[in-house]
């Protein structure tokens, strides 16, 4: 479950980063066409989306690092070897 939520955070982060970048270019186009108020609104919203995407990416990377560290500190217990009946001590 942890690995899926990590991937979900990372995918959501990349989507938000890309939408934020798209919004920056859209705001630039609006400002060039002398629609300053609309460009400003789109630009501010794009900043928030971009920053949120970067935050999601940071959380996903931190979760992955913590999971790897936990796997190293607490490795999975080894499986017991099966004992065949009729061959004691072999």
Structure description:
There is one protein chain. The chain is an all-alpha fold. It has one domain. It is built from 2 helices and no strands. Helix 1 (2-32) packs antiparallel against helix 2 (36-73). The longest helix is centred in the middle third of the chain and has 38 residues, at 36-73. The radius of gyration is 25 Å and the shape is rod-shaped. The mean pLDDT is 87.
Task: Describe the secondary-structure layout.
Blueprint: H1 2-32, H2 36-73
Concise overview:
This protein has helices at 2-32, 36-73. By secondary structure, it is mainly α.
List keywords for this structure.
90 residues, mainly alpha, 0% strand, rod-shaped
* Major sheet description: none
List low-pLDDT spans. none
Q: Report, as a whole number of angstroms, the end-to-end distance.
A: 41 Å
SS-based structural class? mainly alpha
- Gyration radius (Cα, Å) is 25 Å
Q: How much β-strand is present in the residues? A: under 5%
Mean pLDDT equals 87
- How many structurally independent domains? 1
Number of E-type strands: 0
Apparent shape:
rod-shaped
Number of helices: 2
**Percent range of helical residues:** over 70%
What is the string of helix and strand elements? HH
